Every structure is written in C-alpha cells, then in structure tokens.
Amino acid sequence: MINMRLKFIKGPETKYISHLDLMRTFQRALRRAHVPIHYTEGFNPHPSLSFASALGIGVTSIGEYLDIVLDEDMSEKDLMGKLNESLPQGLKIVDAVVLRDRAKSAMALVTDARYSIELIFKDLIDAEKMIADFMVQNSIVVPKEQPKKNFETTDVDIRPMIRVINVLHQENLNVTLDCIVACGSKANLKPHLLLEALRKFMGDIFEIKEIRRVELYANIDHELVPLSLVDRK
Amino acid sequence: MDLNIKDYIYEKLLPKVEKPGRYIGTEWNSVHKDPKNINIRFAFCFPDSYEVGMSHLGMKILYHLLNDQSDIYCERVFAPWPDMEKVMREEGIKLFALESRDYIKNFDFVGFTLQYEMSYTNIINMLDLADIPKLSSQRGEGDPFVVAGGPCAYNPEPLAEIVDFFMLGEGEEQMPEVMEVYRQWKSQGLKREELLDMVSKIPGVYVPAFYDVTYNPDNTIESIKPNRDGVPAKIKKRVVKDLNKAYFPDKVIVPYIDIVHDRIMLEIFRGCTRGCRFCQAGMIYRPVRERTLEELEAIAEKLIESSGYEEISLSSLSTGDYSKLNQLVEKLMSKYEKDRIGLSLPSLRIDSVSLKLLQDVQKVRKSGLTFAPEAGTQRLRDVINKNVTEEDLINSVGAAFDSGYSGVKLYFMIGLPTETMEDVEGIADLGNKVLDRYYRVPKGQRGKGINVTISTSCFVPKPFTPFQWEPQDTIESMREKQKHLQQLLRRKGLTYNWHDPELSYLEAVFARGDRRLSKVLIRAWELGCKFDSWDQYFNYEAWLKAFEDCGIDPDFYTIRRRDLEEVLPWNHIDVGVTKKYLRSEYKKALKGETTRDCRIACTGCGINLLQEGGVCK
User: Fold this and answer.
1) Is the sign of the CA dihedral B280, B286, B291, B293 positive or negative?
2) B254: which chain A residues are within 8 Å (Cβ-Cβ)?
3) pLDDT of B607 above 60
4) Three-class SS string for B132-187?
5) CA B387, B388, B390, B392 torsion: positive or negative?
6) Does the distance separating the beta carbons of A29 and B24 come in below 8 Å?
7) Nearest 10 degrees: Cα torsion A125, A129, A130, A133
8) Residue B257: its chain A contacts at CB < 8 A?
9) If we measure between CA atoms, which residue out of A39, A57, A61 comes closest to residue A48?
C-alpha cells in the first residue's frame, strides 16, 4: 500500500460545495480516473481518502490537502494527470507526494491555516493602523454558534487563535489581508468568525469580496511547515 | 461591486441560500456551449426541486439528445427552492437556466416535464419568475414557446390555456422532428401562429388552441373538436418501436449534492404487461419493449466509465418481468464486483426466486424489503387485477424472515372501487399475519428488531385506466378508514403510515380535469400555492378558496361517477389502449374477474394497432 498526499485547488466553480459533497466528488473522480484506491476492511468498506481540514462554504483555496491510500503503484505524475482529467471545473491537483511509512495523516498534522482575505471598505481607512489596534487587544471575545447545540451561541476568545494578520495590499478601498489562524482539531478559527470580530471592532465598514485559503501548515518544532513538505518519502 | 447579472447571481445570491449546490450548473458531464454559435435555446424545466428533478431519467435522456445537436443548447431549470425564490424576487433576478445563467424568457423553448399533477402550480410560479406571460393567449412574437410532455400530458387539458403545445408519448424521435420544424420556421422568419400550425402536423403534437370544447348544461363535455382544417381529430402518442435502436446517452450529469436517486439508472424495458387496473403507468407506457442483454451491458459500461458512479439501479415498472433478469444480474455482478459497484433492483416482485437474486446482489444489508399487495382482501385484489394472493405474500415474507430480514414494508391503497370496511380490515389482518409469520422463525435464527410497516395511500382514479369512470372515495370516508386502521394496527412490531387525503383529492381533480381548471391553477398560485407535494408548503384552504373564487366545484371532478358514454376531457387523445378495452376491464373489475398477464397471451388492449406493424413483446 502506498500513502499519498495530494494538494489541490478549490476554485470559484466549486466553492459552494460542502465538505461531504466534496468527498463524494473525489470518490467518483478517482473512479473515473481508475486510480487504484485502497478500500477499508470491515463490514462497510469505503475508499481510503481523508481531507486535512474542511473548508467553509463560499471559501476558495489554493492549498487544500487530501490523503489517499493506493493498493498498487502509480506514479505521482500519472496520478495527477489522470485525476485532473476526471475532476470537474474548479478542482485541480497541483502536487502529489508519496509519504513515508507510518506518516501521520494530514488531518492529525494540521495546526494552522493561512487565508488571503479581500475586503472592500466603504471609506478610505488606515488599514495598517486598524489591524495593529485590533491585534494589540489581549482578548477578542465573540459569540460563536454551536451547530451541535441548536445553534445557540457561546462566547469565545479568538485572540489566542490568531497568529498573524498583515495588510498585504491596499489600493484605494480594496484591502487584502494575509492571516494565519489556528486550524485543526485542537483549535480552529473560521475566517468568517474572524471577520465578524473585525466588524465588531471596526464597525460595519467593509464588505467581503473574497476569502481564499492559501496554505495549511503543521507545527513542527515551533515552525510552520506546509503539509506537502511533511513526512515525504 | 460592478458585476454582470450572471456573476451577481453567483457571488451575491448563492451565499444567501441554504443549498447553493442546487444552482451551480457546472456539474460533471453538464453541457456548456457558446450561445453565439447556437440557433435554438431550450430550457428543460422540471417543476420541482433540483434533488427531485435530477433523479428523473427522462430529463437525462432528452438533455443529451438535444445537446448532441450542435445548433441546440439545452439547459436545465428546476423550481428554485422558496429561499432562493425569495432572494431572486427581492433582488429582481428572473428565472435563469443553470448552465449559462441566462434568463429563460429569451430562449426559444421553455419545456416542462409533467410527472405529477401536484407540480402544476410550480409551472405557473416558474413562468412568473421567468417573466413569461402565464397564458398561452398572452404570449406574442419574441416570447418563448412553452411546451410540455411526460405522463401527465396524456390529459393535457388542465394546462390547455397555459402550454402552447404538448408532445405526447416518447420524445426520442418526436423531439428532433419538432426541432427540425422549428429550424425551418425560424429561418423563414414566420409568425408565431405559423409554428403552431407547422408542429400540429407532427404526429403526437397537440396544440390546445386549435381545439374547441363545448359543454352540456350539466357541465359535462359535449364535444372536443378541431377548430381549423388540417389538424387531427385524435392525437396519437408517439412510441419508439425498437428500444435497442433508440437514443440513450453515454453519459449522465453527476450532481455535487445528494439527490433522491444518486446512481446510474439502467432502463431495462418500457411498459408493463401485468394489467393492474388502478395503474396508469401500466397502461400508458405500453407496449412492453425490452433492451437486449448486449445493449444493456454496453450502456452500463459507458455510463460507469463516464460517471464514476458506484451503483447501478435496474429501472423499469416491474424488474422481475425482464425476460433475462438472472443473466443480466449475473453479468453485471461478475463484471463489476471487483470495482465495488453495487446493483439495486427496485420494483421487484418478491418471491423465493427473486429473493435469492436479491440476496446475491445485496451482500450485506438485510434491512428492508417492500411488498405491494395494494388491497387487503382477495376479492378486492381481484377487482384491481393485482394478481398476488395471501399465500404468495406469506410465502415471500416467510422466505425473507427465514433468511434474516426483519424489516418489511407493505403498501396498500384505500378508497379503491367497491371497497368496504371488510376490505380495510383485511389490510390489518394481512399485517398481523405477516408479523405472525416472523414469530414462527425460531428465536436464534430470525433477524432482530422486527418492524412491519404498513402504508396506505389514497386511491386516485386516473385517465386511461379501467377506473377512469369511477368516483374517488370521499375525504371523510378515507379518513374514517385510516382511523379504523390506526385502531387495528397497534400491536408491537407494526407501524402504520398514512397520507392525508386532501392532497390526493386535489390530485384527483387535476388528473381527470378539463381546461376550465387552468384558471384555478393560476388563482391557487395567486393565493400562494406552490410545492404542493411538499407537506410544509401544502395549503388546502388556499386551494378551496381558489376553486370558490373561480366558481368551480372540485367534487364535480372527484366524487362523481362518469357515464360510460360521457365525453371525457382526454377524449381526443389516443394512447393506444382502446376505450373498448378499458370498458371491458372496468366491467370485469366490478364483477371481480381477473385478466391474465398479457405476456402469456394477448388480451386485446389495442396498443399493437397504434402504429403500423406495431408489436408487443
């Protein structure tokens, strides 16, 4: 069996596809591409594939990850070529790496995510200063909906989950932020919640043009390493 | 933000709705063309949700059939879910086709498939959302032609004032003929009415405006006659002679979101020879035509390859009647088992033979099996010609229980012609006998968690069946029967489900309705009716008000017994099965006499005379 990690793009055409639907889409694309995917043992076998992290609906990405297990050898290049021919518009594999034995799953590795967030402000503002003022707070408490508890809200402090926010680019009213936030099973900050906190802090002075996930990282010895570089064979 | 309408819909509207995946339009195998190179734009409309519409085989066939012609661009349109409709209306967005997001009011054709009567208000709503005049008479030069087909088109009359023309029967050959006539019409720059005249010459096309209906003082129909020369007095449905030579697409759209039937539907044959007297499908889809094993294997291979689906469902009205079912199942299983492609066999009459087959197919799950005795006593089953005996049923469920099944569903109808309370009690009696049979299996051997589910639907008399002259049972009577069954089905291990009779009552109105009902549909829509077949949106009071406002008594269509000589609203439609045959079947029904399966020997229904050299297999 061969463990492989695929890095893929989720473009505007597929940004409204939910996590579960994306899973089914990949399963069918893998079938069409005749990728020799391994099936789990047991009563109800299913194809071995797992995503690093669910992406919010409406968010695009150039840094998604999918781990698959193959029964037979297939070169990275061959796999990418065949799978890309079988994927719908808006999904594209951009990297495939074979993992070493006993590699941790992408899902277990991921700790942080990088987002590029494009906002359009209603008036000219000093974005650098606003972000600096936002980040200097010791705690940033926002109400968060809990889907498992009937969407009741609970207050959470998101400040510890924000690693970096930089103003990447500003042109008149358009501001692009570069953010690194917690992502994974231990702590997870969705970009929409971050933007709600920003809105609460700044007032309702911007609209969201695009949220794009750029990369997913593992924290290896206090350093953020893109998942495609971890546990390579 | 400066966005064109297409981008605006995508970027601004979709984030506001619950399931944006319904409106994306770029699913695998969807067809996208450059409108600049297109002569005919066709909006294929299914008047229900994406999930329901995408599960429909006919749409899959005709979508690719039309798109295989390079100058035609056929796109899909479903009824926007009410959350989407709300934002569309708020933002002034009109009904658009999924693939191009272009407004369908600018298309050449807006075609609806009529699968069930209670989707009609969605047609009105979709026309309104599209900004297309709702009445055929209001449409002028430049408006699209609103057309319709599908099983409910065999009684087209309730939609006669709304639809410009109907296409009756199977579309595989007829649709291209209509398109060819349209090309000629368009290239000559003729008037709107001239197209209607031209298509009315195509067999199976019905232009309601070319027929006048007159009425008797008692509101029954006096006559239905063409009001001009050159249109046929009777419109004959179209039938594909050889299914093996008929068009079948080598790909199907693979949706992103979960739909009702998310699998390959392999149509193994059309038609049914059983002759159940309540069943409209069994009459209107005649004659029986099978696809050969070779053809089915070839289709399955192409569809698996192009879709990536992990399941094939054998589709037909009665799967067990396919002459080479065992061979087909064996072939498909041996070929695809290693690829982990599952096979499902719906519409299978369960007996010991088919049970064995089913077990071979479903290796693990032993959850549910469905049986449809339809009526509770042998007398009533003879009336409806459902040739299943109590002994058959007990043997079949017995075989299932013996091999470990513990979930059984039994489907019945209440309100069938000649039904008495004794017949209703027979339903409970059968349910109990089935449960008793389970307990006869020794404890260690039987499956755990027995559940016998008994469901009753309310009978709706349909056109082109032997019961087309029969009154529907009253709402009060059906409710009383349901209450009685609730009392009788309280034993542990039995579950009773029933349907509210109000929806079936309205279905009965439109199933056998005439063209005076078009205005009721529009009035009901004005009063807010849509998605009527969805519990949460069904508004019976609004419907009653719509009838009242239009001065129409719905009872006229439901609980009235028709005289055998009465001119029925579908008198000018010929589905092949003759009135003579239906009458004879009706009379036999009332005497409790059964009719054999016509596979054994012809029963003279008339379908083989529909077209020259027509044969049944």
Assistant:
1) positive
2) 28
3) yes
4) CCCCHHHCCCCCCEEEEECHHHHCCHHHCCCCCEEECECHHHHHHHHHHHHHHHHH
5) positive
6) no
7) -160
8) 17-18, 21
9) A39
Q: Tell me the two tokens of residue A226.
A: 């893109």
- Closest Cα to residue A229, out of A67, A97, A94? A97
B36's tokens: 């600049």
DSSP letter at A204 equals S
Residue of chain A with shortest Cα separation from B307: A32
> Do the Cβ atoms of A16 and B21 come within 8 Å?
yes
Q: Given this structure, which CATH class describes domain A2-98?
A: alpha beta
- Interface with chain A: mutation pick from B10, B19, B23, B28, highest number of A CBs within 10 Å: B28
What's the CA gap between A41 and B443, in Å, rounded?
30
Is the dihedral angle over the CA atoms A55, A57, A63, A68 positive or is it negative? Answer: positive
Q: Residue A193's pLDDT band (boundaries 50, 70, 90)?
A: very high
How many A/B residue pairs have CB atoms within 8 Å?
59
In DSSP terms, which residues pair with A226 in a beta bridge? A217
Amino acid present at B246: A
Taking the CA atoms of B282, B285, B290 and B296 in sequence, report the sign of the dihedral they define: negative
Closest chain B residue to the Cα of A89, Cα to Cα: B26
Architecture of domain A111-216: 2-Layer Sandwich (3.30)
Q: Are strands B145-149 and B221-226 parallel, antiparallel or unpaired?
A: unpaired
The model's pLDDT over B278-326, given as tens digits with 9 standing for 90+, comes to 999 999 999 999 999 999 999 999 999 999 999 999 999 999 899 999 9
Burial of B276-307, coded b for 16+ CB within 10 Å and e otherwise, reads: bbbbbebbbbbbbbbbebebbbebbeebbebb
Structure tokens at B111: 């075609």
Instruction: For B2-40, write each residue's pLDDT tens digit.
Output: 579 999 999 999 999 999 999 999 999 999 999 999 999
Is B286:B392 a contact under the CB 8 Å cutoff?
no
Residue of B nearest to A119 (CA): B1
What are the boundaries of each domain within chain A?
A: 2-98, 111-216
Residue B28 is given by DSSP the state B
Interface contact flag, A43 B364, Cβ < 8 Å:
yes
Among chain A residues, CA nearest to B362: A44
Residue whose tokens read 């299943």: B388
The whole-chain average pLDDT of chain B stands at 94
pLDDT over 50 at B1, yes or no: no
Q: Are A194 and A200 in contact (CB under 8 A)?
A: no
Virtual torsion, Cα B92, A11, A106, A226, nearest 10 deg: -120
- CA distance, residue B123 to nearest chain A CA (Å): 27
pLDDT of residue B593: 96
Mean per-residue pLDDT, A77-86: 97
Per DSSP (E only), the strands in A31-151 are: 49-51, 60-70, 91-98, 110-121, 141-146
- For residue A173 the two structure tokens come to 């009213």
Q: pLDDT, tens digit, for every residue of A149-185?
A: 888 889 999 999 999 999 999 999 999 999 999 999 9
Q: Which amino acid is at B588?
A: K
Number of H helices, E strands in chain A: 5, 11
Query: Which residue type, as a one-letter code, is found at position B237?
Result: K
**Amino acid, single-letter form, for residue A44:** N
Domains A2-98 and A111-216 share a fold: no
Cβ within 8 Å, pair B26-A17? no
pLDDT at B345: 87
Judged against a pLDDT cut of 70, whether residue B42 lies above it is answered with: yes
Q: Which fold has domain B366-499?
A: Transcription Regulator spoIIAA (3.30.750)
Contact status of B500 with chain A (Cβ, < 8 Å): no
Residue A175: CB atoms within 10 Å? 22
CATH 3.30.750.200 domain span(s) along chain B: 366-499
CA B31 to mean position of chain CA atoms: 25
Q: Does residue A110 contact residue A216 with C-beta atoms inside 8 Å?
A: yes
